[in-house]
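The aim of this short unit is practical: by the end, you should be able to scan a pair of folded records and say something sensible about each. We start with the first protein, listed as its amino acid sequence and then its structure tokens.
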Amino acid sequence: MAIRIFETDPDAKPKATFSDDTVGRFHGGKQENGIPVALSEWRVTTGDPEVADAVAQLMGGQAVETDSTSENFIEVLTTTNKVKVVLSGPDAISSDLKLWNGPSLIHHCDGVEFLSPDEDRGKPCRCPELMEDRKAAAKAKRGPAPSISVTFRLAEDYDLGIFRLQTGSWKLAEVLHEVENALNKVGGEALATLELELVEYTTKKGRDVSYRKPVIRVLKSWSDAIAEPTF
């Protein structure tokens, strides 16, 4: 279920979060000296050297061990900003809104109702109705921001395992319902592209702005794709 930006289904209930059964994770950035840095190509982390090598062969780059204390301690800075993936269906996407105070989760909702703690679940969260107002509140640390999880397989190496993209992108949150509608139409596993798309524009004050946003485009049924000579 996408974040409930517009109240169209009062009976909608949030889906459960995914268990961490992935072989690797996709990232649109990294930390350098504690400072977040955006990347123009996908960065993939994993704890499995064979997975890292396979990703490097498919997406370019080299597998490098890092000093991270997490289980995903091998990273591949790929040379690819677009990759074909296989999504299991709408259940491959989970999203909600969260506000953290250090390690503590102090606000957790779907944009209309609280999802936690248990004593508040189902109560109105009183978040602003409009997306721009929600973004402004999150920027001021007065409201929650998107927490989106997408699980998928690589179309060119389906059996390699399931990967995850975790992102707080507002741009993806705005169109997530469209992705889920497309997946519903497919009705099963779907071939899609996962891209770090370049966005460029000039502000009213004449300042040039550019950044990358994660984009998911559903192409066709996976069964139809594998029945063709190439996809």
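Turning to the second protein, read its sequence before its tokens, just as you did above.
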Amino acid sequence: MSQGDDVNAPLPRMAKDDALRWARDYTAYVAKLTEVELLPDTEKVNFEDCLGKNDEVAEDGRYSLFYYIYSPAPASDHTRIVRRLRSELTERDYEVTAYREFKSAYESAILWARNKKNNYSVEADTVGSGKLKPQRFSFAVRTPCMLPPGVKQQQF
């Protein structure tokens, strides 16, 4: 739950189509910042139920979006990518919550950051073992809990 102590605080509103458009645009933006291409056929879109503090699920249509897409950037570029993102995102009110530069398939690159104002999050990391699966770089974003426009927010 990301609404603080008030479980009935008004949720931000956004249509799912608009949330998906934002996710695609933002991952394209961070890929451009880091000068890497994206692989459109690797896109994954996951609309998820928002869970309350005691795992409650509201019935008013609230959701969060977890979206990710891969880049074919080689492992030799992964440290450069997370360094650049750390620098850029901290200038844009993101707090870096996890960070590691690429060392090996077992100590791969990770950057997780959360926007301090609106709780949007960005995850960027190495994926794939390099042995059975090719190592790629993943850009992911997650929205906070959102309510579709025009829907009455359920109270608890």
